[in-house]
Design brief:
Elements lengths: L6 E3 L7 E6 L5 E7 L1 H17 L14 H15 L2 H18 L9 H15 L3 H20 L26 H14 L4 H10 L3 H5 L6 E2 L4 E4 L8 E4 L2 H13 L25 H8 L8 H12 L4 H8 L15 H9 L7
Antiparallel strand pairs: 1-2, 2-3, 4-5, 5-6
Length: 349
């Protein structure tokens, strides 16, 4: 039997029914009813109360949940589920969202308002499509956590179409640029040289690298174990001699015990949030333009492909589930492509 409008099971097959309706002030309401028959009776009662102008029960007259409250809940969620760096970056975004949306009832925020804010910011700050998508994802996460906590019913950011990101640009270090960068780091920030070596020779994301703990490093097997990555899966990263040497040097600098951070902050002892404090300065000193820390992953992947490593293996090392993200490197294997088209030529001997 098809349920009446306004009656639903939040979890299909649970036998626990809820009702939803709109009160006299136009606010959407929801309420747990129990059995289906109870839900039908309760919904009819609420409709009658609305028509008669009767006061709602005290528990339904509570103040609407604000967007700020959802943001606070989201940070709590992120601290338990994500790396410190991811939480830190989310917190920075939330600080910029609060002036515009913080005091608003979360249920009052519409899809078109979020789109308008994203569009305005993207134009004013010249965001790339990928940057805009990250901000959109922050909106969606905030509302999704609110739904999971049963504080709101809908996610107005869920149906916003993501901008198409260009995966064609691959910026990686040339051998000459790497020499200049290493020289600049040795001159100005020698203690950070192992940071760069580990990044270029493992291809880890910044959040993965700077969230690393010593109990995730297996020196004997020359492996790094990431229990949870960006796509939610665990990953084991093999180490070559350069990556292994970088970690051994870092082990000599700090306290390589258990869950202690591989990259601790000298002030707090917690994990560093990234390389922003020194890497841009080193790039400027080396005269390297249009390069970021994330490009170290491109350098790692590009060099693997140019060395003849197949794309499937490169995808696995980068932590990608499909080949789509690594197809951008396929043009860097000219010998492989040339060998493929040569098969069209008939053997005349």
């Amino acid at each position: 039997m098809v349920p009446k409008r306004g009656i639903y099971e939040r979890t299909k097959g649970s036998g626990i029914w809820w009702i939803r309706w709109t009160d006299a002030d136009g606010r959407k309401r929801r309420e747990k009813a129990g059995s289906r028959s109870n839900a039908e009776k309760l919904l009819a009662k609420r409709h009658t109360q609305k028509l008669e102008g009767a006061k709602l029960p005290e528990n339904l007259r509570s103040k609407a949940v604000s967007f700020r409250e959802l943001c606070e809940d989201t940070l709590v969620h992120s601290r338990s589920e994500n790396s410190p760096k991811q939480t830190y970056e989310l917190e920075l975004r939330i600080k910029e969202l609060l002036p515009a949306f913080g005091a608003r009832p979360a249920e009052s925020i519409k899809k078109n308002e979020i789109v308008a804010w994203l569009t305005e910011q993207a134009e004013a700050r010249r965001w790339a499509a990928s940057t805009r998508n990250r901000w959109q994802a922050a909106f969606s996460l905030i509302f999704r956590v609110g739904i999971d906590n049963e504080k709101i019913e809908r996610n107005p950011a869920a149906r916003i179409r993501r901008k198409t990101e260009s995966n064609g640009r691959v910026r990686f270090l040339s051998d000459d640029e790497e020499k200049r960068l290493l020289k600049a780091i040795l001159n100005r920030f020698p203690e950070f040289l192992p940071h760069l070596d580990l990044s270029i020779h493992t291809g880890m994301r910044m959040s993965e690298q700077y969230g690393l703990r010593w109990n995730q490093v297996d020196f004997e097997r020359r492996q790094i174990h990431l229990p949870k990555t960006k796509n939610g899966d665990p990953r084991t990263i093999p180490m070559n001699t350069v990556a292994l040497g970088a970690l051994k040097e870092l082990r000599g600098q700090g306290k390589p015990k258990g869950a202690y951070p591989v990259f601790p902050s000298l002030r707090s002892g917690d994990s560093l949030q990234g390389a922003r404090g020194w890497f841009p300065t080193a790039l400027e000193a080396a005269g390297i333009e249009n390069y970021s820390w994330h490009c170290n992953r491109h350098t790692f992947a590009s060099r693997l492909v140019m060395a003849g490593v197949d794309l499937r293996t490169v995808a696995e090392l980068l932590g990608h589930r499909t080949l789509q993200m690594v197809m951008r490197y396929s043009h860097l294997a000219p010998e492989h492509q040339a060998s493929a088209v040569d098969r069209l030529v008939k053997n005349e001997n």
